Amino acid sequence: MATPILTQTVDLVARFPGMVTADERPGYSGFIVNKENLIEVATVVRDEFGFDLLSSLTVVDYIAENKMEVVYHAYKTTGGAGLEFKVQAERVDPIEIPSLTGIWHGAEYQEREGWDLYGVKFTDHPDLRRILMWEGFEGHPLRKDWKEAFYEEEIKPYKSRWPEGKHTFAEDRNPFHDNLNLPKDFDPEKYVVDKEEDLYASLERHTMKDEDGKMKTDSVVVNLGPHHPSTHGVLRVAVTLNGETVMGLKPVMGYLHRNHEKIGERNTFTQIIPYTDRLDYFNSMSNNFGYVTAVEKLMKIQVAERAEYIRVIMAELSRVQNHLIFVGMLINDLGSMFTPAFYVFEERELILDIFEAVSGSRMMCNYYRFGGVVRDVSDDMLQKIKDLVFERLPTKTDEMERLLNENELLVGRLKGTHVLSAEDAINYSVTGPVLRASGVPYDLRRADPYSIYDRFDFDVAVRHNGDMMDNYLIRFDEIRQSLRILEQALKQIPQGPINSQKPNYQVKVPAGEAYGRIEAPKGELGFYIVSNGKGNPYRYHVRAPSFVNLTAIEKMCVGTKIQDFVALLAMLDIVMGELDR
Amino acid sequence: MYGLGIIKGLSVTWKRFWDTYIDDISWAVSGKKRYRTEEGVKHRSSKNAKGIFTVQYPEEQLIVPEEFRFLPILVYDEGADGKKEVRCTSCGICAKACPPQCIWIVRSNDPVTGKPVSTPADFYIDADICMNCGYCAEYCPFDAIKMDHNFDIATTSRSVYNLEKLLKPASYYKEIRPLNYAQEEADRKAKEAAKAAKAQAAAAAPAA
Question: What is the ipTM, given to two decimal places?
């Protein structure tokens, strides 16, 4: 049954007098740490207080107070509430804040993101380059004084739409047309990609090792992607190879970057919900869930009882179909094209039919609202879900396992490759099935229960070897546990209203901050939201599991064969909509 | 024995290969058509589906559920003399709720009094920008804007829909969303009845 939440409070102020102050802004919580003492405090937070998992690291630009703030959310993998601490710096370039990569390696990409989008220089970061924007880009787009191409107004709704809304195309609307902010002396006609030395230099530094002088061989730099059938979208990976062995590896991302967070900050709170569908487009239900959980935390509202059950049912169905796709695509990447992938797609079709019937769309569901869900699930539809959950899905899962689990070729490819130890997994902030396959039973549905997950009887799926085979098998374990939750939820679902709030396109969100996180199929999906009491969020940050899980990819790959890399990429279960945001 | 796992897996494929034919034959024997009929398509997307799932688009199409949403339409009621009574009052709520801001509404003023009239002068939806989220239909207080079911709209040009293109009769709306339509009509009748009762009570009160 549910693990009791550890309510032991951590008082950093008492432990570090003079170095730490409590954050007393209304609606805020946590501690503000002096910039000079950050490393010292963070070390104690990890080693003494036991917050071993750095969940999220993000930056907020308080332009009115002329401050840049870095917000850290650390948690314990044994479960319980987290610890939030912040560092503030004057908003005068260069903004320098010590890097925490030495304490939590999971900070690496998130700090790079902070540098890229906010221009915060994390000193002593091993590889501080842009991560989502392109190398020649000028400026830091998430800063409040940066304006995007086709900029219209600070916030939506735009005044030009009503009552005198003469339609214009975006490119005509703007006097600067595409409003590109190009570097000085930049001529697009003559542009050749020459800023990639940084990328290749970062590879060299990590890899060039002396070959004990026996035979001189050069390592080869290979670029996998961005257009490669097995990279699950437009991910590029620069690899240095010694023969077939990977010596160093750096993912290059941002090809699908659209600055989701900036769009979110322009939107009203309600308008963000359909945009979250587009993050991890396989699991729009889970994305909605994470976002509304965060905003409901801020609004301090109760969710209607029936809606809680509907939410859980939809989120778990989403998890089942995500893991089914995962299996299909993994096998696809390993070279067994189509057969297993199409078998799982059949089951997924049936689940998507349900999503379509309740929400109106197969993939972009836009189904959750603050306080509940948008419309009720009819009894017919509940019967359909029951048929699937009680009859079809268990047998089909068995069939998939019979099809694949003992297949010698598959076992040969997966067993013992890309082992990730539990310590490394935690240190690199890896979450979700990948962490659990390494032997850490950390599942937010148990460790920090949200919604009504504390009412269900289920086991946290865990495997202990941390290799690819365990990563593959754990998905089946999770499908079975999800089916268990679904069975209970379908039996217990009460009648009643489906929303505790009145439908409203403009919600009132009190000023403050909230970090809401859920166990998405791919890992911990977190939303950090700062509201200043107006109709739009002041800061909207997505802690995307695909993005953070990728931090460990280099660690897992160095020393292995390049052929296995493709399988690893499938195994990390990344999706570019969420990774690039 | 090495290879046993593969054989075990192949038995699954083998079974599924025959499933399609068995299903086909059993349908043929019972005299029903598995392909190109609504019944057949329904069967292939039910929990009892066996063998091949494929729906042969475009000869066959999946039956879309009522809640399916694809691009908005503006509903008008047909007046007695065939006059289009546009339900939209150009209040602008859809334009404000729209996440990608793809709705433009031109509110018109009465040339004599100068006051705004309720029917919109024009109404644009940039279908290329629309993300089919359904907020406009969800928050419309007049049941005037609804989501369509028609999804084969591929064109080679940009699609900006104006009022004329967006207007659809209430009968069309009733056809694609019968349950929603019935519910809304019932709600409206109840509201009108309540209003009439209230007016009656108000009229009766001073007399008493």
Answer: 0.89
